[in-house]
Amino acid sequence: MRRLRLVSAPDAGQPAPASDEELLLAFQRGERGIGLRLYEHLLPVVDRTLYRILGCREQDHADLVQGAFEQIVSTLTKRRFAGECSLAGWASVIACHVGLSALRARRRERKVIDRTPGPPEHDAAPEPPARGADPEREVSALRDLEALRRHLAAMDGDRAIALLLHAMGYSLNEIADLTGVSVAAAQSRLSRGRRELKARCEPDAAARHVPARREEPR
């Protein structure tokens, strides 16, 4: 005789997550509490996008998150969100713009490298260094990341956004929808962005291979 395995039913007291359509309709109607619902729905993607671009959560991280949400609410109020992509995707694009603006400001202040990193990402504990890890190589990798952020901050904004979205796993069609351009235009931005970033990084790579001068004995 076969035994039947009992499967627990979903918790009836736990409401299902609201869809984008439901959230947008509630926003347009001005329903009470919609601001908090939007915040809870989009905070993970906004926070994660800013963290990936900036590399750490510094003292102004909360201000950047707030700035991103102000722009999100503004675009929804002015009905600039066409609904051709998800709300989360739209929020990630806005967070990309906010993050790039912050990088440019820090670059102007010459504090990109000297800033003290904030606490590690709360959703993942830092991995312990692997056995036999090369500290010199790790320091070099960190410098490369900082240089990459500086180069992105100095690049054309549309190309940098396309590169960042691609790095976050969005497909070419999704990048086109998120940025409001054709697939061909998105492909062009991505290709030109790669070439521009490569050209900016080449002097750094060449400098690493220049042998240090030996001091001549006096």
TrEMBL record:
Q: Where is the RNA polymerase sigma-70 region domain?
A: 38-108
Coiled-coil stretches are none
Does this UniProt record's set of keywords contain Transcription?
Answer: yes
Q: Is the keyword Ion transport assigned to this protein?
A: no
Give the GO terms filed under biological process for this record.
Answer: DNA-templated transcription initiation
Query: Which Pfam families does the record associate with it?
Result: Sigma70_r2, Sigma70_r4_2
Annotated GO molecular function terms are: DNA binding; sigma factor activity
- Ranges for domain RNA polymerase sigma factor 70 region 4 type: 146-197
Stretch list, region Disordered:
110-138, 197-218
Its keywords, alphabetically, are: DNA-binding, Sigma factor, Transcription, Transcription regulation
Family the entry assigns: Belongs to the sigma-70 factor family. ECF subfamily.
Q: Supply the PANTHER family for this chain.
A: RNA POLYMERASE ECF-TYPE SIGMA FACTO, RNA POLYMERASE SIGMA FACTOR HI_1459-RELATED
User: Which named protein is this?
Assistant: ECF family RNA polymerase sigma factor
Q: Please report the organism this UniProt entry assigns to the protein.
A: Sorangium cellulosum
